[in-house]
Amino acid sequence: FSFSWQTTFQDGGEEVEDGAVYNVTLKKVQIQQAANKGARWLGGEGDQLPPEHTVRQYETSKIRAIKAGTLEKLVENLLTAFGDADFSYISIFLATYRAFSSPRAVLELLLDRFGNLETSSHGEVANLNSLESEMVLRAEIASVLRAWLDQCSEDFREPPDYMCLLKLLDYLKNNMPNSDMESRVQNLLKQFQNQEVEAVDGFCSSSSSDLVDGEELEISNPEEFFSFQDHVVAEQLTYMDVMLFRRVVPYHCLGSIWSQRDKKENKNLAPTVRATITQFNAVTKCVISTILGTRELKIQQRAKIIEKWIHVAHECRILKNFSSLRAIISALQSNSIYRLKTTWMCVSKDILLMYEELSEIFSDHDNYLTSRELLMKEATSKFANLDSSEKENHKKSQKRLQLQKNKGVMQGTVPYLGTFLTDLIMLDTALQDYVEGGLINFEKRRKEFEVIAQIKLLQSSCNSYCLIPDQKFIQWFRRQRHLTEEESYKLSREAEAAADTNILSPKSQKSMVKRISTLFLGTDVFTPPKEQPPKSSPVGGSSGESTDSASVSSCEFNHSETEDVCVTPVSSPEDPLKKGYDSDKGSVSSDKGSGSSKGSICDPGSGSDSGSSPPGDSGSVPCSAPRVLPVYNRQSGGSCIIRVSMDGLHASVYKSILITNQDRIPDVTQRALLKHNLEPDAVEDYELVQVISEDKELVFPRDANVFYGMNSHVNFDFILRKKA
Question: Which PROSITE patterns did the record assign (predicted)?
Answer without folding.
Answer: RA, RASGEF, RASGEF_CAT, RASGEF_NTER
